Amino acid sequence: MSEANDARVFVPVLSASSINCSIKFDRHLEALLDGTLIEDPNEQMAVCEALCNIGLADHKMFTNDTLGSQEHHYISTKPMRRLAKEYLYSTKHWPIPGNR
Predict the structure, then answer these.
(1) Which long-range contacts (CB under 8 A, 24 or more apart) does 58-65 make?
(2) Could you tell me how many helices (H) and strands (E) the chain has, helices first?
(3) Which of 1, 23, 35, 89 has the lowest CB atom count within 10 Å?
């Protein structure tokens, strides 16, 4: 029987603007990024990483060594989904012209 190697594997993260890197979001994170008008892939990844650091999103990275590509999946956590439903999809938080 072989033993598992406990050594950590370091995988460098490609730049989000690289042609070998793709980013995918669930619908809640996509709505958040659309609502804040963040279109740059590097900025999108930075926002999603910040959300991961505070527990509002989870990150999974898939790599293909033969192609040298990476795919990043960001998925909102339950607290983030609750916030998204409350703020992004509720009309009570939308600015109404003339009510400033």
Answers:
(1) 61/11, 61/13, 63/11
(2) 3, 3
(3) 1
Q: What is the pTM of this model?
A: 0.71
Amino acid symbol at 15: S
Structure tokens at 58: 């989870």
DSSP E strand boundaries for 26-87: 57-64, 69-76
Whether the per-residue pLDDT at 40 is higher than 70: the answer is: yes
Residue 3 DSSP symbol: P
Arithmetic mean of pLDDT over the chain: 81
C-alpha span between 16 and 46 (Å, rounded): 9
- Tokens (6 digits) for 13: 């993260």
Q: What is the amino acid identity at position 51?
A: L
Classified as helix, coil or strand, 39 is coil
Which H helix or E strand runs over 24?
strand 21-25
φ, ψ for residue 50, nearest 5 deg: -65, -40
